[in-house]
């Protein structure tokens, strides 16, 4: 009986990971919801919390535009800017209550140890988003793209395209990890594979309908199942 010989071919690079921030790595979705509600109330706009939650993940400008469309309100550019400013101030007041989501620091550390490239891409502006680096125990030079750095935020693909460019990878070989339909729609438009997490309040069915290849409870659950995403554990088992 002849022996089977291994075919020689270039080893593939592991996929890069492009992470959303709020609701994916840090438990901050509801702080953002309350901050938006407070900012709107200060301008005399009363909006139900659930309606605000459905728009978290968009940029502030798109959020307010959607609000105007749904409520029939007319706001000037100055009023829109004022609402966004008040939101940022209120969110920063709640900063001390924001925590890492289960497994997030450990997942990022595991990817780094295995030589997997990753970056954060968020619809938040740098003023609020970069405060999460300390919460996650990450250095200031962590690869992060914020709303301030691109022309359009989610559901446009710009944030993920910019994050992939920052890492020097093709977005078509990357995986986007996010908690909202806006993340997964942007991932699809960027040509990346979408991975959903339930830690931001969206349901499994919604995430799968928007294109999630896999849906995990949170980043801790994802860490335990990295082999499903092509990231093998180091050691002898990695070859199987």
Describe this structure in words.
GO terms for molecular function: sugar-phosphatase activity. The chain folds into two domains: 147 residues, HAD superfamily/HAD-like (Rossmann fold), CATH 3.40.50; 67 residues, DNA polymerase, domain 1 (Orthogonal Bundle). Helix 1 crosses helix 4. The mean pLDDT is 90. The protein is built from eleven helices and eight strands. The relative contact order is 0.17. The chain has a six-stranded parallel β-sheet, with helices on both faces. Strands 2-3 form a two-stranded antiparallel ribbon. The two termini are 24 Å apart. With 240 residues, it is an alpha/beta fold.
- Overall geometry: elongated
Determine the mean pLDDT.
90
Name the poorly predicted regions. none
CATH level-1 class of the largest domain = Alpha Beta
Distance N to C terminus: 24 Å
What CATH architecture label of the largest domain applies? 3-Layer(aba) Sandwich
- Strand content is 5-15%
Number of domains: 2
Order of helices and strands: EEHHHHEHEHHEHEHEHEH
For the largest beta-sheet, the strand count, sense and barrel status come to: 6 strands, parallel
Structural class: alpha/beta
Stated plainly, the CATH topology of the largest domain is called Rossmann fold
- Give the beta-strand count: 8
Trace the largest sheet across and list its strands. 5-4-1-6-7-8
- The percentage helix is 40-55%
**The CATH fourth-level homologous superfamily of the largest domain:** HAD superfamily/HAD-like
Q: Using only CA atoms, what is the Rg? A: 19 Å
The DSSP helix count reads: 11
């Amino acid at each position: 009986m002849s022996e089977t010989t291994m075919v020689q071919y270039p080893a593939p690079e592991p996929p890069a990971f492009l992470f959303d921030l709020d609701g994916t790595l840090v438990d901050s979705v509801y702080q953002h919801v309350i901050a938006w509600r407070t900012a709107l109330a200060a301008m005399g706009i009363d909006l139900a919390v659930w309606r605000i939650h459905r728009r978290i993940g968009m940029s502030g400008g798109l959020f307010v535009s959607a609000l105007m469309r749904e409520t029939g309100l007319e706001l000037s550019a100055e009023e829109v800017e004022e609402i966004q400013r008040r939101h940022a101030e209120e969110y920063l007041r709640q900063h001390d209550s924001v925590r890492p989501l289960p497994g997030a620091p450990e997942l990022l550390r595991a990817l780094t140890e295995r030589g997997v490239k990753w970056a954060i891409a968020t619809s938040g502006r740098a003023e609020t988003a970069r405060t999460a680096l300390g919460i996650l125990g990450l250095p200031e030079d962590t690869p992060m793209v914020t709303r301030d750095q691109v022309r359009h935020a989610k559901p446009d693909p710009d944030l993920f395209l910019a994050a992939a460019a920052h890492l020097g990878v093709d977005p078509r070989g990357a995986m986007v990890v996010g908690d909202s339909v806006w993340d997964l729609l942007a991932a699809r438009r960027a040509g990346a594979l979408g991975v959903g997490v339930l830690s931001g309040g969206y349901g499994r069915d919604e995430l799968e309908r928007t294109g999630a290849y896999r849906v995990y409870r949170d980043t801790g659950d994802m860490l335990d199942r990295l082999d499903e995403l092509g990231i093998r554990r180091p050691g002898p088992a990695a070859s199987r």
